[in-house]
Amino acid sequence: MHTSFRLKVLFPGFMSVLLAAAACKSPQQGVNAAEAQAQQPHTAEAHSQAIVTGADQTAAYLPYLRGKRVGMVVNPTSVIGRTLSVDSLQALGVNIVKVFGPEHGFRGDASAGVKVDDSVDPKTGIQVVSLYGKRNKPTQEDLADIDLMIFDIQDVGARFYTYTITLHRVMEACAENGIELMVLDRPNPNGFLVDGPILEPELKSGIGMNPIPISHGLTVGEFAQMVNGEGWLANGIQCKLNIVKVMNYTHDMPYTLPVAPSPNLNTQQSILLYPSICLFEGTIISQGRGTYFPFTVLGNPDLKDKYAFNFTPKGINGMSETPLHQDQACYGLDLREFDTQVFRNTGKLNLSWLMELYKAYPEKEKFFDFKQSNQIGNFDKLAGTKKLKEQIIAGATEEEIRQSWEPGLSQYKQKREKYLIYP
């Protein structure tokens, strides 16, 4: 684990809301990392216990929050048990002065790519600042009344998933304003997979900011360490990090998310397929937006003569109001029963679906036409390189494509080792 920058990792012991409430009444003013680590069981039994997220370990961090004005970057995945962490922590007496909401909004009621306005949360009365609207990064004014910021959002381990981009920007804002950032860490459901081309600098965008592969194999806590350690914040500034570690977790462990991370990743199957399938967002191929099983199917109306399986996208409030190929039968691949264990076994993204559907599509000049497809992302920005599109068009083999990812991918894997918190 890399520790040359300012970092504190908390290793708590017993976690329950009752203990948390008791901790709030304790005279102790903060959590010492060494003392907390001493509470952590180091027996074989501990490693066989259930995974416990950082947020669920309230007894470890509640005393540290006492007396502080707290800001929180959260969404519907930010739960303690089954309750939103904002609601839980406010009930436990934490002074939450502001909530910052990413894509999809604080309570998750906005569709993908839809801008979200600032508001006041009707349940808690807390001011909600949107980081997916008129600004994507907290301002100095936003942070003026905050002593400590908390980041607690479930990621899925793909470079183009926007929550780690939000984390990067929040880290930068905190560093610029001298505010400590506490990361309540959560497992990465694709944490076993490190694969894909490294993002090229000229393709930096809102769906890719840092030189990492498509599937980066980091938790948000580890990602935050890498951002700091590699000097990726503006002018190389450092964010003061305080990471509450996940208990009983390793990267090779299967992890089923208790809450859908976004409206269109609503099943475990879609989450595991996502790093491979999201590339289709920059093509003429539907990924099932406008169905109740998005990111598990692929199709297009023009493939009727090639495939029997079909689905028809419809407008669905809160998911996809105007999906690609709306009200048209799309023919293609049904991946709902695909054995995702293959990703774990091979350690590779699936490129064959992209290659197959490009070959099958009759009007190849339209396949990667971003304007024609009316999709969320530009293919080159999603891929992180212009080479992949060129290789698919030229008929390159998968081996040739993968070879072009080197030496960048291997170098990233070595770099990643410095920032791992978990085996």
From TrEMBL:
Domain Peptidoglycan beta-N-acetylmuramidase NamZ C-terminal: 272-422
InterPro entries documented for this protein: NamZ (IPR008302), NamZ_C (IPR048503), NamZ_N (IPR048502)
Signal peptide boundaries: 1-22
Entry annotated with the keyword Ribonucleoprotein: no
Record-annotated Peptidoglycan beta-N-acetylmuramidase NamZ N-terminal domain positions: 70-268
Pfam families referenced in this protein's UniProt entry, alphabetically: NamZ_C, NamZ_N
Gene3D superfamilies listed in its UniProt record: 3.90.1150.140, Uncharacterised protein PF07075, DUF1343
Keyword Signal appears in the UniProt entry: yes
Domain of life: Bacteria
UniProtKB keywords: Signal
Name the UniProt record assigns to this protein: DUF1343 domain-containing protein
Organism: Pontibacter aquaedesilientis
